[in-house]
Design a protein that fits this description.
The chain is α/β, with parallel strands linked by helices and 296 residues long. The chain folds into 2 domains: 18-181, 3-Layer(aba) Sandwich (Rossmann fold); 187-293. It has helices at residues 18-30, 44-55, 70-74, 79-88, 104-110, 128-139, 171-175, 187-197, 203-217, 228-240, 245-251, 255-258, 262-274, 278-281, 289-293; strands spanning 34-37, 58-63, 75-77, 100-102, 115-120, 141-144, 149-152, 158-163, 178-181. The strands form 3 sheets. The protein has a 5-stranded parallel sheet with strand order 2-5-8-1-9, with helices on both faces. Strands 3-4 form a two-stranded antiparallel ribbon. It has a two-stranded antiparallel ribbon with strand order 6-7. Strand 6 and strand 7 form a beta hairpin. Helix 9 (203-217) packs parallel to helix 11 (245-251). The longest helix is centred in the C-terminal third of the chain and has 15 residues, at 203-217. It is elongated and about 75 Å long.
Length: 296
């Protein structure tokens, strides 16, 4: 069994702030779910993998969709297979237990070793979903009426829950969680993150790319702001494409990596065209729009 007193201190592949590190360790110590909020691309999902790697634990991921029900995380009773076996199979259909399949939450409870359970993007589900999980997350157990079996956690998993804040979560659910909001990295923090993924990057290229990246994020009315992961991909594309740092601000190549909506591309072009003196410096700016729309 792993040492339950292990503390998370970040990992080589994930830059963590002191505040976030403390939140993780407090949640572990109090044995409460850690609810992580933040805009897409701030590393919420990667945090769970980082904790698993750092503490040497298995990571079980429960990806939540709009149609996901809490019951699916506990167990599923495969009535269709049982009906099929009763008509065509050789199995003893009276043994209902063989048709019970544990979900991600059930698997985390049943694991012989302590695991990390990631409930990813909980806000995608309907409003009843968090409330339906309250008892199980509190008690770390659930009942299967078909087999009259109580499933209890062998080792209480470390529960990480992420939310993109698309909808508010119930107050009763929030009271049972340790909460942390991951703010979008400032330029200094972003450089550290990039250094993990692209060590030894040319300094001028990095500076020009980051200036352009934050300029785009600060443009009003951008519907989907580029995220950290998209900046990392963009930098890789710039290196592979052999783009000179001097061309990054003027040409903004491979914009399809940073901006994924036509409306945002149009907003960017209008912003650059209407910026002070831009039309004087480059009277054919609009005619070169395809430069900005080029993708990969």
């Amino acid at each position: 069994m792993k040492d339950n007193k292990q503390k998370y201190q970040g990992s080589n592949k994930y830059i963590v702030s002191d505040e976030l590190m403390n939140s993780v360790n407090i949640a572990i110590a109090l044995e409460k779910p850690l609810l992580i909020k933040g805009e897409p691309g701030t590393g919420k999902t990667m945090l769970a993998q980082s904790i698993a790697d750092a503490l040497g634990m298995e990571l079980i991921i429960w990806n939540i969709k709009s149609t996901t029900k809490a019951q699916e995380g506990l167990y599923v009773y495969d009535t269709v297979q049982r009906l099929y076996d009763s008509q065509f199979g050789d199995n003893d259909v009276a043994n209902i237990k063989q048709y019970i399949k544990l979900g991600k939450l059930g698997a985390a409870f049943s694991a012989r070793e302590k695991v990390i359970l990631l409930i990813d993007e909980i806000d995608k589900a309907d409003m009843e979903f968090p409330n339906d999980l309250l008892w199980e997350l509190d008690q770390m157990s659930f009942y299967i009426p078909e087999t009259k079996e109580q499933v209890s956690a062998v080792n209480r998993p470390i529960v990480i829950i992420t939310s993109n804040a698309e909808k508010e979560l119930p107050d009763a659910f929030l009271r049972r969680c340790i909460f942390h909001y991951i703010a979008f990295p400032d330029p200094a923090e972003m450089e550290k993150i990039i250094g993990v993924h692209h060590p030894g990057l040319e300094r001028k290229l990095l500076e020009q790319a980051m200036d352009s990246f934050y300029m785009i994020r600060n443009i009003p009315n951008i519907q989907k702001k580029p995220s950290t992961s998209e900046l990392i991909d963009w930098l890789q594309a710039l290196v592979i494409g052999g783009i000179s740092p001097n061309k990054i601000k003027n040409e903004l190549p491979f914009m399809g990596i940073l901006l994924k909506k036509n409306e945002d591309l149009d907003t960017l072009l209008n912003q650059l065209y209407n910026s002070k003196g831009q039309n004087k410096k480059n009277p054919n700016y609009k005619s070169g729009a395809s430069t900005y729309y080029s993708g990969y």
